[in-house]
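Before surveying the methods themselves, it helps to consider a single example record, giving the amino acid sequence and backbone structure tokens:
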Amino acid sequence: MTDVVSAAWLADRLGDVRLVDVRDAWEFDGIGHLPGAASIPFDEFRSADGDVGMLPGRDVWEDLLSAAGISAGDDIVAYDDMHGVFAARFLVTALLYGHDPEKLHLLDGDFSAWNQQYETTSEASDLPEATYDVTDPEKSPLVDFETVDAALDDDEVVIVDTRDPDEFDDGHLPGAVNLDWRELVDDETRGLKPRKELDAILDAAGLTPDRRIVLYCNTARRISHTYVVLSHLGYEHVEFYEGSLTEWEARDGRIVEE
């Protein structure tokens, strides 16, 4: 399962993992980055054909990871400076393109948390030569419009809207529960809240490990973070509606306003 790792965990393994920095290129160069990290800005791994939030395409993904010195068998640790939400989108994209979920890790607390404890650098990283080959995942969490529409009438499914409460009130899928992805993050540490707090928050929202869970937001960025967190916590029945509200509204899906 894709997991969340501490700065201390990463510090002990810097030479054994491939680091991906998804911040803007000017931040990578100007502010500095983790030693050995490759820069793959968020905008580079989103679809360029107008489908905001959608996958970039197999060829684009292979080129990006090959240029970053990453091979299909590598352990990858991704980070950003936004509590992990952009880095999580990178990791879910890797998962959907067949990377082993056991080799995908989100840095807990993002760049700022690392910077408080360990050294960063502005020097260019010496990246190895690599050829990345996309494969089909053994099991994909992706679900489509029709699957989500059918799930609305299934009492065994929890539909989760990971946007903020104001967005939720403006319009959401019928029966959805609102769990703002930021509720799982500690603003002070910039990382995940303690396990007991996470369990209490998730339980209050009806998200228990035995339930089938379907996640959506607007463009699949925020659900990526929630997906990674639930995976890290051992949830096995989590589905990822990548089209989210962008597709849902375009296809006249049912919407409830509060």
Q: What stands out?
A: The beta strands are 3-5, 18-21, 38-39, 76-79, 104-107, 157-161, 177-178, 212-216, 238-240. Residues 93 and 248 are 20 Å apart (CA to CA). The mean pLDDT is 94.
